[in-house]
Design brief:
The protein has about 150 residues and is α+β, with helices and mostly antiparallel strands. Helix content is about 15%, strand content about 50%.
């Protein structure tokens, strides 16, 4: 007889708890997957696209120090010589980010893998449409920033 009384009581307590939890406000924080430190080391890349409305290609090494400073050693189809430029980058918790180089080149958006092993980016401006994927080849900075 006591079991018949116990079941409805337990069921009422469980339902009340479930009702309380479902009405609670959802957590207001987003999980962070990436940070500046995620983008660290040296990455090879090869770009194809349009720059200034004309066909463009470039290849080289990106270097990121894990603290927001970047360097790029590259050769492009326009300058046709090896160049080096420094810059800065940001990384958001959702693994998106931006990079601006000292020569005023802006990478509008990049998308980083949470492991930091690769990223994709796209640069779109008035007459530029350039996109690529870069892969980490070393956790070291193979190209030293001056």
């Amino acid at each position: 007889m006591k079991m018949c009384t116990l079941y409805p009581t337990v069921l009422s307590v469980l339902l009340a708890g479930a009702s309380f939890n479902s009405s609670a406000a959802p957590a207001q924080h987003e999980k962070s997957y990436c940070s500046l430190k995620t983008l660290e080391g040296s990455y090879t890349y090869s770009i194809q696209g349009y720059r200034g409305g004309k066909p463009y290609a470039s290849s080289g090494l990106f270097t990121f120090n894990g603290a927001g400073d970047a360097g790029v050693l590259y050769t492009s189809s326009i300058e046709r010589t090896q160049l080096f430029v420094t810059g800065a980058y940001t990384v958001n918790g959702d693994c998106s980010g931006t990079m601006t180089l000292a020569d005023k080149t802006v990478v509008n958006n990049f998308y980083l893998s949470p492991s930091g092993d690769s990223f994709n980016f796209m640069r779109v401006s008035s007459n530029d449409v350039i996109g690529t994927e870069a892969r980490r080849v070393s956790r070291e900075l193979l190209v030293k920033q001056p």
